[in-house]
Amino acid sequence: MVKQLKESALKQSPVDLSKTLFCLAASIVFRTAFSQSFFENKHINKEDIEELMFEVQKNMSFKFSELFPVAGLGWFMDFLSGQHKRLHNVFNEVDTFLNHIIDDHQSKNPNQDRPDIVDSLLHMLHTQEQDESFKLTIDHIKGISQDVYLAGVDTSAITMIWAMAELVRNPRVMKKVQEEIQTCIGIKQKERIVEEDLDKLQYLKLVVKETLRLHPAAPLLLPRETMSQIKIQGYDIPPKTLLVVNAWSIGRDPKHWENPEEFTPERFIDSPVDYKGNNFEYLPFGAGRRMCPGMASGIATIELGLLNLLYYFDWRLPEEKKDMDMEEAGKKQSKNTKMSIFLCFLWLLLLLLVTLVFTQKFQSSKLKLLPGPQKLPIIGNLHNLEGLLHKCLQKLSEIHGPVMKLHFGFVPMVIVSSNQAAEEVLKTHDLDCCSRPETIATKKLSYNFKDIGFAPYGEEWRALRKLAVIELFSLKKLNAFRYVREEENDLLVKKLSEASQKQSPVNLKKTLFTLTASIVCRLAFGQNLHESEFIDEDGMEELASRSEKLQGKFAFSNFFPGGWIFDRITGQSKSLEGLFSELDGFFNLVLDDHLKPGRKVLESPDVVDVMIDMMNKLGQDGSFKLTTDHIKGVISDIFLAGVNTSATTILWAMTELIRNPSVMKKVQDEVRTVLGEKREKITEQDLNQLNYFKLVIKETFRLHPTAPLLLPRETMSPIKIQGYDIPKKTQIMINVYAIARDPKLWEYPEEFKPERFVDSIVDYRGLNFELLPFGSGRRICPGMTMGIAMVELGLLNLLYFFDWVLPKGTTVKDIDMEEEGAIIIGKKVPLELVPIRRH
Ligand code: HEM
Question: Membrane-spanning regions, if any (predicted)?
Answer without folding.
Answer: 294-313, 341-359
